Amino acid sequence: MASQGEEIYHAIDFQHFCVSIYKQTIKIFEEDGRTDDVENLRTEWEGEYKRLEALVGKHIKSPTFSRDLQVTCRGRQLFGTEKGYIGIGDITLEIGDLVCVLIGGKTPFILRPVVGGKYRFIGECYVHGIMFGESLEEGLKREKVFTLI
Predict the structure, then answer these.
(1) Are 101 and 140 part of one and the same domain?
(2) Which residues pair with 100 in a beta bridge?
(3) For a tag on the chain, would you pick the N or C end, based on fewer CB atoms within 10 A?
């Protein structure tokens, strides 16, 4: 994620972290002139943003939340999919990488297409909305065999 705000690294709880990420994403989109993306984000997430903002500081604050968050997120970046899902994955992610739910996997994975119809394994990821089998229930299931190099 480009130009991350300091507020993200000093979140007092998970709600504060989410609110900070939302604000920072809007700011980045605005700076990049992505007005359609700003409007879509606001339309889809405004209700959740207001709910989270109202909860900031109302939960037990972890004295180690910020440090634990930094350790967990080190070497990772936020990403969005063409279908509008938001996730976090390896810092080396590139446009065109695929989010895949591999049979037997406990998390979604990122694969990168390379020459000859083969794929490079990039790593695991978290994608909000497909972590508990929702993608299979929503008809996103499509079986494909991947040849990894």
Answers:
(1) yes
(2) 109
(3) C
Q: Which residue has the higher pLDDT, 131 or 7?
A: 131
One-letter amino acid at 34 equals: R
**In this structure, are 67 and 96 located in the same domain?**
no
User: What would the pLDDT profile of 51-92 be if each residue is shown by its tens digit?
Assistant: 777 777 666 666 677 777 778 788 898 888 888 788 899 999
∠ CA 126-127-132, nearest 5°, is 90
CA-CA distance, 119 to 113, in Å (whole number)? 4
CA 131, CA 53: separation in Å to the nearest integer?
A: 24
- Report the distance separating Cα 122 and Cα 102, nearest Å: 13
**Residues whose CB falls within 8 Å of the CB of residue 27, separated by 6 or more in sequence, listed in order:** 5
Domain stops at, among 9, 41, 74:
74
As a whole number of angstroms, the distance between CA 36 and CA 84 comes to 13
**79, two tokens:** 């990403």
Per residue in 83-98, pLDDT (tens digit) is 878 889 999 999 999 9
Looking at the predicted structure, is the pLDDT value of residue 2 above 90? Answer: no
Last residue within a domain, chosen from 16, 45, 74: 74
